[in-house]
């Protein structure tokens, strides 16, 4: 089992204060505060099942030569009829923080198999993934068969259950739509939403389920597919439900699996399980809740002092020895640090208070010396290479930026100082950084499905309508975090399809923060040298040089239209009316023929209402007049059908500007000057 959690940066405290007084202070500090961690754990199999608790008929055994958690027991007999089983992670997980008033995002994925023991007798009933309170980890009595080990006749529908579940059901009860469906349940056995799966769950095929929660949109989603089948149309199932989990569940929850049987038996097994949440470390005074217990403080102080007294001296000696060797070997790196120019904020990189700094040679080894065979792509400031960090057991994407361009160096510093301070499930995570003389290197989490444009325009994989819809919502969620939910407003300035990355489950993650800028929420905009990619840049940004949330929303609207239409924002070789995607779609909107713009490869397999909503919202966001664009929050409300569709003019408006000329730097490093009279000039640079 692999486990990770955030930790407090107390290393500097230990370095600077090596006295018993500082140690006592540290111990009291730990005791007076409670810590909440974001959680990540991974069970590729259950040979090592530490922290997994089983109850009922559940047990650890081999299923098809894989160590699994079998939820139906491993013996056939009468005591397995009308039985319940549970397996859950033993440690409570912080779902929401009452002090910071935030709720975690989380993603969990698991492989499972369901097979009837006797093929002549239909198998019953189901497996469910559940989230519940610490007081409800044991299945209630009389909860077998159709109750899934979650509820019974007395508790069903009671809000005090504090139970949210995703069911995989192969038996039709009176409240079920059929005998092969999935559902999302909230405090009741009757699903809030359900969907029929095309093949029987009991076929014995290995299924992979991914359950995710986006706290921004309050969306709980399920993706279900066969283990060996890629995410293509008609080969997977998507189910979503909007629920405010903090209104249903306590702040700390238990996650796990429940299963039940009726009068027939099946093999029900969980083969692997991964879970990750994103709630940052929070320190809250116990006294604020009124539940401080002095005897517990004393006990913890005693234990910490005992352990620290034995290990502290050894730790300091070891640290000093290691640090001395590191300093002796870092003279060359210090020279390289001076070459960076020490831009604002760069001192944090040098002092090591930002993201992890890698030795340059480690990233050379990880990428096989930046091998061309592992090259993932080429951007305006350098190449991107696939790598593997052995010490962290993780795949990475490494962006190598040449320092021959001063803009490349600025992008390097800007990206590290921006993205390292942000944390959201729809933003690409920066793993670390390094530089050496003429090379600057950034290491990101690896996105197995690459960039969005490779699927839309290079036909890497056909994107089904549910996947496209999910990508738009994910991108919107990430942008909302940047604009409104972080402590400062972050203007990205380069939102485009090639900067939207897709993980293994086709979740959207916005990347490339080299052009991003921090703006105080109350200021709204910042005047800069115009930089970005033609077609995605708002018209007023080209003229006024003012980057703001509205210019980002314009870019989002363009990308949304690209996703729906499967066309680039600018197609120079297309017939005149179709060269500009926004102009063409707006013309069809005015003629009442909006759906003619949709990607023909969808073959009509889409939801008409959602498609119309998405395309109209895309046009609204890409409105030429920035004062008539929505905020990203307003756009999300429309996409969620929480607000009515906007009524746009039948003809695309023409904005009027009379500002001073602006200096422009477009994505391929070409500079030009536009005046208000030249605002119709068309440039077609290579797209980064």
Automatic annotation (TrEMBL):
<keyword id="KW-0808">Transferase</keyword>
<keyword id="KW-0723">Serine/threonine-protein kinase</keyword>
<dbReference type="InterPro" id="IPR050528">
    <property type="entry name" value="L-type_Lectin-RKs"/>
</dbReference>
<comment type="similarity">
    <text>In the C-terminal section; belongs to the protein kinase superfamily. Ser/Thr protein kinase family.</text>
</comment>
<keyword id="KW-0732">Signal</keyword>
<dbReference type="InterPro" id="IPR013320">
    <property type="entry name" value="ConA-like_dom_sf"/>
</dbReference>
<dbReference type="InterPro" id="IPR000719">
    <property type="entry name" value="Prot_kinase_dom"/>
</dbReference>
<comment type="similarity">
    <text>Belongs to the leguminous lectin family.</text>
</comment>
<keyword id="KW-1003">Cell membrane</keyword>
<feature type="binding site">
    <location>
        <position position="400"/>
    </location>
    <ligand>
        <name>ATP</name>
    </ligand>
</feature>
<dbReference type="GO" id="GO:0030246">
    <property type="term" value="F:carbohydrate binding"/>
</dbReference>
<feature type="transmembrane region" description="Helical">
    <location>
        <begin position="21"/>
        <end position="43"/>
    </location>
</feature>
<keyword id="KW-0430">Lectin</keyword>
<dbReference type="Pfam" id="PF00069">
    <property type="entry name" value="Pkinase"/>
</dbReference>
<dbReference type="InterPro" id="IPR019825">
    <property type="entry name" value="Lectin_legB_Mn/Ca_BS"/>
</dbReference>
<dbReference type="GO" id="GO:0002229">
    <property type="term" value="P:defense response to oomycetes"/>
</dbReference>
<dbReference type="Pfam" id="PF00139">
    <property type="entry name" value="Lectin_legB"/>
</dbReference>
<dbReference type="InterPro" id="IPR011009">
    <property type="entry name" value="Kinase-like_dom_sf"/>
</dbReference>
<dbReference type="GO" id="GO:0005886">
    <property type="term" value="C:plasma membrane"/>
</dbReference>
<protein>
    <recommendedName>
        <fullName>non-specific serine/threonine protein kinase</fullName>
        <ecNumber>2.7.11.1</ecNumber>
    </recommendedName>
</protein>
<keyword id="KW-0472">Membrane</keyword>
<dbReference type="GO" id="GO:0005524">
    <property type="term" value="F:ATP binding"/>
</dbReference>
<keyword id="KW-0547">Nucleotide-binding</keyword>
<dbReference type="GO" id="GO:0004674">
    <property type="term" value="F:protein serine/threonine kinase activity"/>
</dbReference>
<keyword id="KW-1133">Transmembrane helix</keyword>
<keyword id="KW-0418">Kinase</keyword>
<feature type="domain" description="Protein kinase">
    <location>
        <begin position="370"/>
        <end position="648"/>
    </location>
</feature>
<dbReference type="InterPro" id="IPR017441">
    <property type="entry name" value="Protein_kinase_ATP_BS"/>
</dbReference>
<feature type="transmembrane region" description="Helical">
    <location>
        <begin position="294"/>
        <end position="318"/>
    </location>
</feature>
<keyword id="KW-0812">Transmembrane</keyword>
<dbReference type="InterPro" id="IPR000985">
    <property type="entry name" value="Lectin_LegA_CS"/>
</dbReference>
<keyword id="KW-0325">Glycoprotein</keyword>
<keyword id="KW-0067">ATP-binding</keyword>
<keyword id="KW-0675">Receptor</keyword>
<dbReference type="InterPro" id="IPR001220">
    <property type="entry name" value="Legume_lectin_dom"/>
</dbReference>
<dbReference type="InterPro" id="IPR008271">
    <property type="entry name" value="Ser/Thr_kinase_AS"/>
</dbReference>
């Amino acid at each position: 089992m692999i486990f990770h959690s955030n930790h407090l940066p107390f290393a500097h405290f230990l370095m600077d204060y090596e006295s018993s007084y500082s140690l006592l202070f540290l111990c009291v500090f730990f005791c007076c505060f409670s810590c909440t961690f974001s959680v990540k754990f991974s069970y590729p199999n259950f040979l090592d099942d530490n922290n997994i608790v089983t109850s009922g008929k559940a047990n650890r055994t081999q299923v098809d030569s894989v160590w699994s958690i079998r939820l139906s027991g491993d013996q056939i007999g009468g005591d397995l009829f009308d039985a319940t089983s549970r397996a859950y992670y033993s440690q409570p997980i912080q779902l929401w923080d009452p002090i910071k008033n935030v709720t975690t995002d989380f993603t969990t994925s698991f492989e499972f198999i369901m097979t009837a023991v006797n093929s002549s007798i239909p198998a019953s009933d189901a497996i469910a993934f559940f989230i519940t309170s610490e007081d409800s980890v044991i299945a209630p009595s009389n909860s077998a068969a159709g109750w899934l080990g979650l509820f019974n006749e007395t508790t069903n529908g009671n809000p005090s259950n504090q139970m949210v579940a995703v069911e995989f059901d192969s038996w039709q009860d009176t409240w079920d739509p059929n005998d092969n469906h999935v559902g999302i349940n909230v405090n009741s056995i009757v699903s809030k939403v359900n969907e029929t799966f095309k093949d029987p769950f009991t076929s014995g095929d290995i299924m992979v389920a991914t359950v995710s929660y986006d706290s921004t949109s309050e969306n709980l989603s399920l993706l279900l597919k066969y283990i060996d089948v890629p995410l293509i149309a008609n080969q997977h199932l998507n189910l979503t439900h909007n629920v405010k989990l903090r209104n249903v569940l306590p702040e700390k929850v238990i996650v796990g699996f429940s299963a039940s049987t009726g009068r027939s038996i099946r093999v029900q097994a969980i083969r692997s399980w991964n879970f990750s949440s994103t709630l940052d470390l929070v320190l809250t005074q116990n006294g604020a809740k009124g539940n401080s217990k002095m005897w517990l403080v004393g006990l913890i102080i005693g234990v910490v002092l005992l352990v620290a007294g034995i290990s502290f001296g050894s730790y300091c000696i070891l640290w000093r020895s290691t640090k001395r060797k590191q300093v002796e070997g870092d003279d060359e790196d210090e020279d390289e640090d001076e070459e960076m120019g020490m831009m604002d904020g760069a001192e944090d990189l040098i002092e090591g208070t930002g993201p992890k700094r890698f030795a340059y040679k480690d990233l050379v080894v990880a990428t096989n010396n930046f091998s061309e065979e592992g090259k993932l792509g080429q951007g305006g400031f350098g190449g991107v290479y696939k790598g593997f960090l052995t010490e962290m057991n993780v795949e990475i994407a490494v962006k190598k930026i040449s320092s021959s361009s001063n803009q490349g160096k600025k992008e390097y510093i800007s990206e590290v100082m921006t993205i390292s301070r942000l944390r959201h499930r729809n933003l690409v995570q920066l793993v670390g950084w390094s530089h050496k003389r003429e090379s600057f290197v950034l290491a990101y989490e690896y996105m197995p499905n690459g960039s969005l444009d490779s699927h839309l325009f290079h036909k890497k994989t056909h994107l089904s309508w549910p996947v496209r819809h999910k990508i738009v919502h994910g991108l919107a969620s990430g942008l909302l975090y940047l604009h409104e939910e972080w402590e400062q407003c972050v203007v990205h300035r380069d939102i485009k399809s090639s900067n939207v990355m897709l993980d293994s489950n086709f979740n959207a993650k916005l990347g490339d923060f080299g052009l991003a800028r921090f703006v105080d929420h109350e200021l709204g905009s910042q005047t800069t040298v115009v930089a970005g990619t033609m077609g995605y840049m708002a018209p007023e940004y080209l003229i006024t040089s003012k980057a703001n949330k509205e210019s980002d929303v314009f870019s989002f609207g363009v990308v949304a239209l690209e996703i729906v239409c499967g066309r680039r924002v600018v197609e120079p070789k297309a017939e005149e009316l179709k060269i500009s995607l926004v102009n063409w779609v707006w013309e069809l909107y005015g003629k009442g023929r909006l759906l003619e713009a949709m990607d023909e490869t969808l073959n009509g397999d889409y939801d008409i209402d959602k498609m119309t909503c998405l395309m109209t919202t895309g046009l609204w966001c890409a409105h030429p007049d920035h004062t008539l664009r929505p905020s990203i929050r307003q756009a999300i409300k429309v996409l969620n059908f929480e607000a009515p569709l906007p009524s746009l003019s039948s003809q695309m408006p023409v904005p009027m500007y009379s500002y001073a000329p602006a200096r422009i730097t477009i994505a391929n490093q070409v500079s030009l000057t536009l005046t208000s009279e030249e605002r119709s000039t068309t440039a077609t640079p290579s797209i980064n």
